[in-house]
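Margin note: ligand = (2S)-2-hydroxybutanedioic acid.
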Amino acid sequence: MKVCVTGAAGNIAHLFIPKLCNNEIFPNKKITLSLLDIDKEPQIKAMNGIKLELFDCNFPFLESVSVHTDPNEAFKDCDVVVFIGGFPRRPGMERKDLLAINGKIFTCQAQALKNAKENVKCLVVANPCNTNAKILYEKIKALGIKINKENITCLTRLDQNRAEGIYKEQSGKKANFFIWGNHSTSCVPDTFEDIAITEEFVKKVQQRGAEILNVKGTSSSFSAAKAIADHLRDWYLGSDKAVSMGVVSNGEYGVEKELVCSFPVKCRGEWKYEIVSDVNLKEEKKKMIA
Ligand code: LMR
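Resulting structure:
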């Protein structure tokens, strides 16, 4: 399996790459890793350092590691691209404030996807991830690059994991949650279980990214890396419960067609998933999702 990680010199990639190479995501698969970051000395040095350390880890299924600054080369023959690269949020900013700068990255990188395999799976992490995934999708379509829209996704598993973690912390109980909408302060945590979700709980989940940013001074890192691993593993292997993925809408639940929106999805294995179709939404929830 050839996997490209963009933003490879950054914090999240640093925590995600060992999980990938240790086969925590794709068990027993040989991995060919492609690292991409910007053409600046610190990033190139960091990527070359990661390459050396990966050899020293002696991961049994890691076949090779290549370092790139050109997405055309980095994406060549890729089965999976994890788009982590982008400017991170600073305290006081909303994720949408990153659009002007990070959106451009996706316009450029979409063109390079012509070099990836036709069934390449894309996971957008860089914020605002829903909108960046939408840019990727629109650009691919405009360029006539043949990639199925089901293969373009963005990360809302972080919000799901947060909802589950916060619920456990507050109640001492485990429950499964999922996320509707955007990876932003308007995301809507929900559950199939018989649990009353309070306004306070929703706010806590919606604001968790900002809370971490304010407390640490930098964005989430290993929780993001864990969520990327969860998203990819479930997408590839399948999951027994519904999980959250930002996907291109076909108009489900009244969400405008071709918006990239988080839904509860059932992953069937071998990269197949479907949006759970029979959720009975109350008026209040519909308004929140809208
Ligand atoms: C998060 O939710 O932690 C990430 O999207 C980073 C951020 O800017 O909040």
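The first helix runs from residue 11 to 21.
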